[in-house]
Request: fold
Amino acid sequence: MSKGGRPFGSKTRPQIRQFMNDDDIRDIMAVAINKAKKGDVIMAKFLLEQNFGKAPQPVIGEDGNILQVIVKPYESGDKDNKSA
Reply:
């Protein structure tokens, strides 16, 4: 007896885009853009993140400072490179 939904173990999910035509998408986007223009901060943030990506977040260490990762090329005989 099936409970509906995806079969157990399936790796792909149907995308909403498969159930909409171009007119549906235009209508939904018009509503979303109007909400953002009228001051809906959450909708504005969502639309901006969809178009430009999420702003990078700093990684904070235990001391409260931003962690820095320094990457340099390995050179044979480099005394500072202990992973070789």
